[in-house]
Amino acid sequence: MKTTILGYPRIGSHRELKKACEAFWDKKINEEDLLKTALDLKTRNWLQQQESGIDLIPSNDFSLYDQVLDTCLMVGCIPERYKYIPKENTLELYFAMARGLQKEGIDVTAMEMTKWFDTNYHYIVPEFEKKQTFNYFSKKVIKEYKEALAIGIETKPVLIGPVTFLLLGKEKEEGFQRLDLLDKLLPVYLEIIQELTDLGVEYIQFDEPCLALNLGNNERQAITTTYQTIHRQFPKLKIFLANYFDCYGDNLETALQLPVDTLHLDLVRCQLQLDDILNSEHFNKNTKLSLGVVDGRNIWKNDFEASLKTIEKALTKVPFENICISSSCSLLHTPYDLDLETNLKFDIKQWLAFAKQKLEEINTIKNLCLPENDAYLPLYEENKLANLNRKTSKLIHNNEVKNRVLKLTEADSHRESNFSIRQAKQKNALNLPLYPTTTIGSFPQTKEVRNWRLKHKKGQLSQEDYDNLIAKEIEDSIRFQEDIGLDVLVHGEFERNDMVEYFGERLNGFAFSDFGWVQSYGSRCVKPPILFGDVSRENRMTVKWSEYAQSLTEKPLKGMLTGPVTILQWSFVRNDQPRQATCNQIALAIRDEVVDLEKHGLKIIQIDEPAIREGLPLRKEAWAEYLNWAVKAFRISASGVKDETQIHTHMCYSEFNDIIASIADMDADVITIETSRSEMELLEAFVNFNYPNEIGPGVYDIHSPRVPSLQEIENLLLKAKQVLPKEHIWVNPDCGLKTRDWPETKQALENIVKAAKKLRQQELELV
Ligand SMILES: CN1c2c(nc(N)[nH]c2=O)NC[C@@H]1CNc1ccc(C(=O)N[C@@H](CCC(=O)N[C@@H](CCC(=O)N[C@@H](CCC(=O)O)C(=O)O)C(=O)O)C(=O)O)cc1
Ligand SMILES: N[C@@H](CCS)C(=O)O
Ligand SMILES: [Zn+2]
Fold it and tell me: Could you say which residues bind 5-methyltetrahydropteroyltri-L-glutamate here (predicted)?
């Protein structure tokens, strides 16, 4: 029996990689310094895994920015627009693809980014053209294998499988299907595998999480062709095939017939597939099984008793030596180390395991399976006790909250009137111009603002002083928004550390870590709150600052809240009750806040739901049930106000096509969406569906430091104007501006307002 994991977090327990990357981008450190930090992190990760008894330790799971971008570089899939960046300057090219580049006559946009399956991790979307060619360009995988070898660790290199790589990408022109490129891509993979096997690599982990999706026959055939070809050419190579985040489902038969050494199962997301596999006529008894019993997506302690039962079941059909104990998916999605948390209550801390603790769990589970396991029995008992304690803890249950959810009625998820009546009333109440301009909520979270919060947290800045600084920042931002002529203002979210953590900190039922960082994209991290119990709102959460901001201006100010599905989705959520039940509890807490904002004079309230698409189950069979409760939860949160109050929602990084009916069903008066990186492509779904309510297609890609020109914004707006009724169009950036600096924000927003004014002028001239 062996142990493995599919990947380890890489940002650093103290976000060392984030800090090094950002210092490198700011030219405060050079390439050598950055690469040294990276090597230190990789080395620490490998040694940690070795020390924890992991047998098959992954390499090439590290990335300076994103593993899909690494794969693009590996196979030379570099879009034409980067050709002016010298290829020898690999890091400049790499970060230009990730973030865009504006310097010395070069002005290139970044590649698109989207969500990695149903996680809050974003990957860079590969771009393919009809005449796409591939070549073995970046040798990172070799370099990392050698780096580990240099410290005496023989690793299992991880590659994103060619089929998943193609499916995750996008055709940039018509007339071909990206899967047709497999014939050209596969030879490059073979070249890479050749180099790895020449170095003595025994196992390669191929990540093919596309197997968790509904695939067509040609996609399944592509999987079969790929692994038959690899096996034919490298019969001695041990192919470790990893699918995760859901079952193999109807791809199981294909997967079971592949010539692979080890098949990985995510047994956290899909318990039942083990029975299906063991009972399948296609199951080859010589195939090893990697049993992903330790949750790579959540932070609850493993239930050893349950895991051992699962392993016992596998052992009825699979020889002991053919079992590998592993994490359900890469541990990338969990924080580093629970030992760093000194402020978590013991009661709660005893229920948790972060990445380092998960390594230890995997090792313990394996040892508990051995005949001589005496030394590990105390750990088994400790685990049993902690889990029992969680089941019965008084910290978790609140009957008042449970009853309120039980008493919800259909009427609680409906506004008083339908949209057209509300629209007319809101027009009167708000008196906005055509093409109203607004922003999505946050303004730059500068170093100063974050430092005030840090000092305040450490007790070095009093509540009063902190509040005064925030108030001044809000006032400045209101003046700025008025000066440039925005129509609907925001307070700027300066008081918030994060749009989910901030609410979690103010709601009952949540706990917080100090170092529970998880990479969201590139150098950006989030610290998901730990949602352990019934959720309720004790006090108002946002009214003070929104009311204050509104008092500074005659223009309408948007109250700013995070929606129930997003709070659920971006927290480490309890696994002892259905997600739907937890979501309704959050919805009621947000509803109370919405009603309070209205009471305090806010005429527009935005309830952000950027995670609604990401929460969609990977398999379509499960969509309807999810969408039903998710949309309902949003509606519960939004429906406590009168018709005149305008409810906005915001979503970013979403493919809307498949779920557009549900988005319309959310019945927000206005929705702002991400569209600029995709050149308004994402708007298509709204147009085809005849989306009934108002819509603000983002015209400024806020994830890149690039300032969009007036012309670019105008072009995007013209595209929107061609397909949407003009009375429905809002003009706004893609998403919040918290990651941007003020100078570029000012320039970009000025351009946005100018573009909207120009459009209005053109309308006047037409009359
Ligand atoms: C909209 N997005 C979000 C997602 N998920 C969320 N939970 N939140 C989101 O906003 N998913 C999809 C997208 C992803 N986008 C982003 C965008 C930006 C960030 C981001 O900027 N993250 C910050 C960390 C934010 C935070 O929690 N800050 C705290 C702690 C501040 C801190 O680092 N303090 C320093 C000292 C201050 C200093 O000197 O700089 C310290 O403690 O050492 C706060 O503001 O109080 C990031 O830095 O990565 C994430 C996802
Ligand atoms: N209101 C949030 C939404 C981000 S998705 C912000 O502006 O940052
Ligand atoms: Zn957003």
Answer: 15-18, 115, 120, 524-525, 570, 614
